[in-house]
Amino acid sequence: MYDFKPDPALDPAETHRQLCEAADALTAGEPDAVANMANVAALLWDFLPDLNWAGFYRVAPSKDGAGSELVLGPFVGRPACIRIPFGAGVCGAAAETRATQCVADVHAFPGHIACDAASRSELVVPVLRDGAVIAVIDCDSPSPARFTQADATGIEALAALLADRI
Ligand code: SME
């Protein structure tokens, strides 16, 4: 049994350090990308308070094979939209710009894609391998302005750890 126990009294930076440490321990030496993303989605859900969705979109071929887009990966939360074109919504913006998107009010974000009507704020971090986006990590919260710079920095460190493990 894995028994990672986040302490709610910790400050966010320490929470993220422990989350990364747990993710490292769970994914080290495991080559299966789906298993690693599934476990990390569960860790995000366990460690970060006040989320209603946490998981991955992977860069994968579009249905017609003509290009690539974001395709739903392992997650915790309500069923979500499956395919997101580059540039669309918060996830597509992160993939297109290769930059973290920290959105305090999703209703004010042009083109935001509402997968769960409860979402009020969102943090999306691209996972880069050799400079190219291979996935994004998406966290949604029912509270406005839930995500801080500490969350962005922490999830960026997680993305760097996972770059050759997913
Ligand atoms: N809100 C996202 C879509 C994914 S869901 O939040 C799980 C977006 O605007 O890209």
From TrEMBL:
Designated name of the protein: GAF domain-containing protein
PANTHER family per record: FREE METHIONINE-R-SULFOXIDE REDUCTASE (PTHR21021:SF15), GAF/PUTATIVE CYTOSKELETAL PROTEIN (PTHR21021)
Gene Ontology CC terms: cytosol
Ranges for domain GAF: 52-164
Pfam families, alphabetized: GAF (PF01590)
Organism of this sequence: Erythrobacter sanguineus
SUPFAM superfamilies reported in the protein's UniProt record: GAF domain-like
Protein family according to the UniProt entry: Belongs to the free Met sulfoxide reductase family.
MF-aspect GO terms: L-methionine-(R)-S-oxide reductase activity
